[in-house]
Write a structure and sequence with these properties.
The structure holds two protein chains of two kinds. By secondary structure, chain A is an all-alpha fold. Chain A contains 21 helices and no strands. The model of chain A has no long low-confidence stretch (mean pLDDT 83). The chains are: A mainly alpha, B alpha/beta.
């Protein structure tokens, strides 16, 4: 019997990628154009900023070099924590939850070959994002400093062991977790940990208040700010070694010590991980197969709550079912934590906004900001809707036959989805608008207008998400995030943005008429009042038409299924 | 009862179901047999309201499925071949939800759900999440749901897949009991022994068309052999066994 080397086991993954690239699906062109365009824009922006900053720092001689060195260390430190976490999550899927593992473990495949093939896959899956992000940064610094070819070669040779070390450590953590908890429980715990990690990063970055650097009054604080930055950079971390190696090659010299430390540590971690997997993998995998009684919350209050709701019994049962399924799935509800963090950061931004520094204009700016705030709140709301409301029909998954074979009309089904999505989104939208306008100190007229406008806009955006989710369902999607990123989801975002721009233009125009006259103490002439009213009515009309058309088309699409 | 008239389903130029007509009387268990890809599941899915026919009509207990889908579905129970259900609900919650969809009131659902769960030997699992169930348990739970609202007609696609011998025996007894109570059952299956043991009449479908119909005795006579088993008859009617080729290859 010929034994194939371990890369042979990666062939199915490569073939699947190749087949996916060859297969053309409806909307592929649009998706590639939108995502490719966005990625190119982000890449170009990162490159531009890094290039500009590196050029600027050139004027500060040694201080500039120090800042680049510090920048590298911080960049790699951030990636190190990201990679370690990503390694934990990815290895849970590649080593324990993948469907093809049963086939491989039943086949005469040596454990070492299985380990190496899975490890390479884990490193690839966990590290590709970091590698992609590093390309414009490395290019930006290198081109600004006119670095030679060696700098780019060293960058690649530094990145490989730098990714391997945290991913190997993360895989071992997963191995321990799976041997302690059942794999599916471990996945829930990891999902929650990941989100708390993301929440902590977002909050920390915001509450550092980096905008203080731009303020002249806070100049004495800058030294303290840098000392804060310096504190977590430790010479014992691979991030420091990677930063030093790359910085040395940028200067045209070598740092063999740190380069060697990176490679030897990466090899040592790989060997240790292989030994740990050789010893404990099969026990962990066996545990992951055991179906244990799942622990869950009964959520009985939902049944009592549903009895008090209006609507027929079918609608009430759909509502209770949707909420229970959502709240018992950690991968679903935990994303609300991130949403909550983003909301807090959003409101915090308004709280620290110091518009009184420009006393003469502050009134006008505040009211202009109130209109911008309406647009931003609507964008947040559409992002929430695309993630939580748009996939609500697809969330039925393969179990949709239960609804389709029941005597419940598709109309009732879709309306139930709409109301279940509308109420929480409306509360979020109103809270964002009212509280941010309060912190902003907007004129009372604008506060009322904002609250009323977001009410109608929420109806339209939730209706659009529900309807388009029914027109473009993906019942076979592996997870609901995939549904949000589908052709229909992108189409929804494009339409939502267009809708928000039109609404904000109409509302901004009408409110500017009133504010213009108010500031000058002039009574608004009847013709202008008529214009204002017609603009507001048009905005309401567009919102109602958007909501109604999307829902009706969604119902028709569901009725035509099959 | 279930009545299907000249049912056609086309996918582009391909005709999956080509003019199928059949009727299942109250109290009858009607077997629906055919090789893979013959059009069984497509026909069953059209009767269940999951697929739209290209032409033809389907009547369930006097209600036209195209004109009065809610009334037709309200008196039909459906058991699919693969028991996909909401994994994050408990068995009891799933049945309560199912009862709600069929307009049953809460007290009625509670009593009937307990009765069904006990009947299908799932009573002690009532409070457990569906995700912890085996395939056979999910299959039995789907059957609980199908009979929960006391349908007068039941549509079954491959009932024995994933069931252990005890589960299979249980299902056979329940189906027979339900048919004695006047429920019309249309059952698609590959297990010819099950069809032979349980069905009052059998229809055999091949390339989208019904090629034979009758009682087990009539089908045995139609094939003209001396066998008393359906398997050789089925192989003969559906175009040879291919067994010789398989034996040679092995």
């Amino acid at each position: 019997m010929t034994t194939q080397p371990f890369p042979y086991l990666l062939l199915p993954t490569l073939w699947a990628m190749r087949n996916r690239a060859r297969r053309r699906e409806h909307g592929d062109g649009t998706r590639i154009a939108i995502f490719g365009g966005l990625a190119a824009m982000v890449g170009a922006a990162i490159f531009g900023i890094v290039f500009y900053l590196t050029i600027q720092l050139y004027d500060y001689a040694e201080l500039g070099d120090y800042l680049i060195r510090l920048g590298f260390s911080w960049l790699f430190l951030t990636f190190l924590s990201f990679l370690a976490f990503s390694g934990v999550v990815t290895s849970l899927s590649t080593f324990f939850l993948s469907e093809d593992l049963r086939l491989l473990l039943a086949a005469p495949v040596a454990r070492d070959r299985l380990f190496y093939s899975r490890f390479v896959k884990t490193v690839g899956q966990a590290g590709w994002m970091v590698a992609t992000f590093l390309v414009p940064v490395v290019l930006g610094v290198g081109l600004a400093r006119c670095a030679g070819m060696r700098y780019y070669v060293v960058a690649v040779l530094t990145l490989v062991p730098f990714v391997v070390i945290p991913v190997a450590a993360g895989s071992v953590v997963t191995l321990i977790l799976v041997n302690v908890f059942p794999a599916r429980r471990a996945r829930d715990i990891l999902t929650l940990m990941g989100l708390l990690f993301a929440v902590a990063i977002v909050m920390m970055l915001r509450f550092l208040r980096p905008e203080r650097l731009l303020s002249v009054e806070s100049l004495p604080d800058i030294a303290a700010f840098f000392s804060t930055l310096q504190s977590p950079v430790t010479p014992l971390f691979p991030s420091f070694w990677a930063g030093e190696t790359l910085f040395a090659s940028l200067q045209g010299s070598h740092d063999w010590l740190h380069f060697g430390a990176l490679w030897t540590t990466a090899l040592a971690f790989t060997i240790l991980a292989r030994a740990a997997f050789g010893r404990y993998y099969f026990t962990g995998w066996s545990k992951a197969q055991e179906a244990r009684k799942a622990r869950f919350t009964r959520l009985r209050f939902l049944d009592s709550m549903a009895r008090a709701l209006p609507g027929g019994p079918a609608a009430r049962h759909l509502f209770v079912k949707d909420l229970k399924v959502f709240l018992r799935d950690t991968t679903q509800w935990s994303q609300l934590l991130l949403l909550l963090a983003l909301m807090l950061v959003y409101l915090y931004n308004f709280r620290v906004l110091d518009l009184d520094r420009i006393p003469y204009m502050s009134g006008v700016v505040k009211n202009a900001y109130a209109v911008v705030n309406l647009a931003m709140a609507a964008f947040v709301l559409s992002a929430v809707a695309v993630r939580f409301v748009f996939p609500s029909v697809s969330a039925e998954g393969p179990a949709f036959w239960v609804i389709r074979t029941s005597p419940v009309p598709m109309r009732s089904f879709l309306w139930s989805k709409f109301w279940t999505g509308l109420v929480p989104v409306l509360i979020v939208a109103e809270a964002l608008t009212v509280v941010s306008n309060y912190y902003l100190g907007a004129a009372p007229f604008l506060r009322v207008l904002g609250a009323v406008a977001i009410f109608f806009m929420t109806f339209a955006l939730v209706g659009l998400a529900t309807g388009m989710g029914a027109i473009y369902p993906r019942f076979n999607a592996e997870n609901l995030t995939q549904v949000a990123g589908s052709y229909g989801g992108i189409g929804y975002m494009v339409l939502a943005v267009l809708f928000i721009l039109v609404e904000v233009a109409l509302l901004g125009w009408s409110s500017s008429i009133r504010l213009w006259h108010e500031y000058r103490g002039i009574r608004i002439p009847p013709s202008q009042v008529a214009l204002m009213v017609s603009l507001l009515l048009t905005a309401v009309g567009i919102a109602i038409a958007t909501f109604w058309t999307a829902m009706q088309r969604g119902i028709r699409a569901l009725e035509a299924l099959g | 009862m279930i009545a299907v008239e000249t049912l056609v389903k086309k996918y582009g130029a391909f005709t999956a179901v080509d003019g199928v007509s059949l009727s299942v009387a109250p109290g009858e268990i009607h077997g629906f047999l055919g090789p893979n890809g013959a059009g069984k599941t497509t026909t069953i899915r059209m009767i269940a309201g999951l697929l739209k026919p290209t032409s033809g009509s389907i009547t369930i207990n006097g209600h036209d499925l195209a004109r009065a889908p809610e009334a037709a579905k309200a008196s039909l129970g459906f058991i699919p071949d693969r028991p996909f259900i909401y994994e994050k609900l408990t068995a009891g919650e799933f049945l309560r939800f199912h009862g709600g969809l069929y307009g049953m009131d809460a007290a009625e659902v509670e009593a009937r759900a307990t009765e069904m769960l006990d009947l299908f030997e799932l009573g002690r699992w009532q409070g457990e999440l569906v995700e912890s169930f085996s395939h056979g348990m999910k299959q039995r739970l789907v059957m609980c749901a199908a009979f929960l609202h006391r349908p007068r007609a039941v549509l079954v696609d491959e009932p024995m897949v994933g069931l252990d011998p005890r589960g299979a025996r249980l299902i056979k007894d329940i189906f027979r009991h339900m048919s004695e109570k006047g429920v019309a059952i249309l059952m698609s299956t590959h297990t010819l022994e099950v069809a032979q043991e349980m069905c009052d009449r059998i229809s055999i479908i091949l390339r989208g068309q019904i090629i034979a119909r009758g009682t087990v005795g009539e089908l045995l006579a139609l094939a003209g052999g001396e066998d008393e088993q359906l398997t050789p008859v089925f192989l003969k009617l559906t175009g040879g066994s291919g067994l010789q080729e398989i034996e040679e290859a092995l």
